[in-house]
Structures are given as C-alpha cells and as structure tokens.
Amino acid sequence: MNTAKTTDTQKFPLQGADGAARLVVLGGGESGVGAAYLARQQGYDVFLSDFGQLADKYKNQLVEWNIRFEEGGHTEAEILNAAEVVKSPGIPDKAPIIQKLIAQGTAVISEIEFAGRYTNAKMICITGSNGKTTTSSLTYHILKNAGLNVGLAGNIGKSFAYQVATEKFEYYVLEISSFMLDNMYQFRADISVLLNITADHLDRYDYKLENYAASKMRITQNQTATDHFIFCADDAETIKAMQGQNIAAQQLPCSIEKMIDQGAYLDHDNLIINVHQQHFQMSINELALQGKHNIYNSMASGIVAKVLELRNETMRESMGNFRNIEHRLEFVAKISGISFINDSKATNVNSTWYALESMTSDVVLILGGVDKGNDYSMLRSLVKQKVKAIVCLGKDNKRIHDAFEDDVEIIVNTASASEAAQVAYHLAEKGDTVLLSPACASFDLFKNYEDRGQQFKDAVKEL
User: Fold this and answer.
1) 151: closest CA among 172, 127, 175, 126?
2) Which residues are listed for ATP binding in this entry (predicted)?
3) Which of 196, 247, 248, 388 is the most buried (most CB within 10 A)?
C-alpha cells in the first residue's frame, strides 16, 4: 500500500485570513477544479486562477463549493502569496507565472502529487507515448470485473483529486502523461507501466528525446523492492532510458520477439504471462484488441492482473469482451461495403503508424491538423503498402503533400470533417477502409480531438 506522503511543502508558512494554509490552483479544467475541491475539503484557503476562460460547468461548481476563482488572467499578488501551487499539466514550466513561483522557491506540484497525499489506495500508474489510454481502460475493466473496488483517473475520466475527495476506492488505475510526471515528487506507484517512448511533445523538452524519456522514467521514482515496474523489452528507447537508472521495483518485461522468464511473451499465437508462479495463457485471436500494438497493451494489463493475483477465468473473459475507448480505432459504420474508422485520438505519427499497421484492407487515410514538427518518414513504408489516397484535414497541409507525393497518387485538401468524410467516401471502393488517423493535434479546426472525432462520426452518418 502507499505510505503516507508527508513533505516539507505541507508545513505551510503562508495562511489565509482564517489561518488556513493558502493553496493556489492554476488551470480550471477537470484536474484543476478537482484539486480545488479536495483542497477545500482538507481545510485549505483555496484560490483558482485560469489565464483563459472557464467552462460554465466548472464555474458553477466553484461557485457552489464557495471557492474563490478568476479567469482571463492571473493576479500575481494572489498567486505569488501561495504556500504551494497545484498546476494544470497543460501549463509549461516556461510560463512567466511559473518561472516567478520557481524563482521565489514556491513548490509547484501536479494534481496527482497533491491528491496522492490523501489516499492509501494501491496505485497502478500507466504511461507511454502511445497506448496508455487503451491500456488504462483495459486494466480498469479487468480489475472492476474481478470485483475490486477501483477508480479510473489521471488523463482519463473524472479528476483523481475529485475522486479522492468523494470516493473510497482501494485501487486506482491512473493514466499518467509526461506533463503530470514532471511535477510529481513524493508520489509512489505500487505498479508502474511504461508502454513505449517515441518522439512526442518535444517542444516541452527542448526538442531532446532524452529529456522526454527521462520524464517518462519518473514513473518509477520512489518505488521500492515490493513494487513492480512493467515495460516493453522490445522498445529500444525504453531500454536506453532504463540504462543508468536505479530502479528498485521488481521488473516485469513484455515482448513479442523473445521468450520472457518473468513477465509476458508470445509463443506462436499464444500470449503467455508468468509472474511469481502465476501462469496465464490466451490465444491472441481471442483478444478484444487486435493488431500488433494491442498485443503489448493486453500484455501490460495482463501482467498487472497477475501481480494482483486475479483469476485466469476473469482475465480471459475481460480481455475478450473489452470495448475500446471512443476515438481510438473506433468502428463507426459500414456504408456500401466501405468501413469507416475513427482514430481521432491519434495526435502523433506513431499512433497513426499503429493504426495503419492494424489495417487489413486498402485504406483512404484522413491526415492533418496542427503539425508538432512531425517526421512522417516512419509512415512511408505502410503508406506505400496500404494507402490508396490521402485526404488532408487541416489549415496547412504542405508538409503532408511533401512527405507523400511520391508514394500516393491522390492527395486532396479538405477544410471540415464533413468535407473530408464525403471526399474519402468517393475515393474509396467496396472492401476499403476510410481511416481518420490524423497524426496531428486538432486545434486548427476543432476544439479538441474529441470534437474532431465526433464531427467525423456525425458526417459519416450523413453519407
């Protein structure tokens, strides 16, 4: 179980008018509002500040809970007087207000770090450049079906802090991003999972992959010899990042390329898991999640289940009937023999690679959006093999044209989800798949990837 997490930052020197310790929350989204609620519950003098505008839902909650807040800017006098600051993972350390807090020695922590102080639940923490939402959802599905009292939080669902304040879960499955890890210090995972490391969000890491990888390795910090670390033995960047690290936890690798003594591996078409005399076997053809990348995701979730000594029958049933999350390789419809797949959550090149790798038919691929310095070269081989046309969905598609003009005969520009769906439908033939897997962020034309995926699904239904 998690030990009590007491830090020097909890001995607050700065107080509000009623003598309560002053805590400031920066960012008024799901995680920030949840942290504010937990802090209020724990007796803090709480102030929430958002540089942008708050959603009505969150504003109403803050008013209902009698928590002071501001939007549309930061009042520095209110913020710099905090004993401690909980910041949204979306706010970079380079933001001026964060730099001022750091300069004066004010502790700046993540919601996960803060909420972890107030629960002794077992923590199953899952990170990776790709697959973490799917693996977190599958792990939660297995544990819940096994009868465990478990919550799902982090980058997914209701905020961890809000659940700590309102629930009494004995286990948490937490999807953890590198941005969250950067501001976690005393928090400890009982079971940590690192799925893979590929170039993503490098603008936050001085464009150095090794900095991003070091951030991912923080998933193992504070772990002890009684804890477990699950990782992919086939991922070169993960193995490289582990070198020189002092990992105290018991290591449980997974591989589809070689036999593993303690961990998971593939024996022909059978997924094998061996953990501390606990043995599990299942045909990959029976897994709900298909495709090479999903074998790794299923292995990681399966190892977690075996560490917790769950019954094989429960695992087999859950891994066979799991339904993937919305916007991740989500089947939308079959029209005139053409399958439409919504993979809007693929916001980087590696995610799109995984999506294409799992396709078994010819593909009309919908790509584009806000390009985060993408290197499309890793897609070229799969595009040559499987893609008959590319439909660009974004304001600036030049880099996509430059990357694939020698590999695909047809590349068309579109400016809305409806137009993209219609053009792709006309380019596809019976037996083909129209795949929305953009490899880019969505903010040029959409609110977020969910909005992009929903507009695509609505457009398909109108065909």
Assistant:
1) 172
2) 128-134
3) 196
User: What pTM was computed for the model?
Assistant: 0.78
pLDDT in tens, the chain (463 residues): 343 333 333 333 465 555 678 999 999 999 999 999 999 999 999 999 999 999 999 999 999 999 999 999 999 999 999 999 999 988 888 899 999 999 999 999 999 999 999 999 999 999 998 889 899 999 999 999 999 999 999 989 899 999 999 999 999 999 999 889 989 999 999 999 999 988 766 666 667 777 888 889 999 999 999 999 999 999 999 999 999 899 999 999 999 999 999 999 999 999 999 998 899 999 999 998 877 888 999 999 999 999 999 999 999 999 999 987 788 888 899 999 999 999 999 998 988 998 998 888 999 999 999 887 788 999 999 999 999 999 999 999 999 999 999 999 999 999 999 999 999 999 999 999 999 999 999 999 999 999 999 999 999 999 9
Give the CATH H-level superfamily of domain 115-321.
Mur-like, catalytic domain (3.40.1190.10)
On whether 461 is known to bind a ligand per the annotation, the reply is no
Strand partners, 126: 175, 193
132 labelled as ligand-binding?
yes
Q: Is there a binding annotation on residue 129? A: yes
- Domain map (residue ranges) of the chain: 14-109, 115-321, 330-461
Which CATH number is 14-109 given? 3.40.50.720
**Side-chain half-sphere exposure of 227, counting CA atoms within 13 A:** 24
Instruction: Confirm or deny that 133 is annotated as ligand binding.
Output: yes
Options 1.20.120.450, 3.40.50.300, 3.20.20.140, 3.90.190.20; CATH of 330-461? 3.90.190.20
User: How many angstroms separate the CA atoms of 371 and 341, rounded?
Assistant: 21
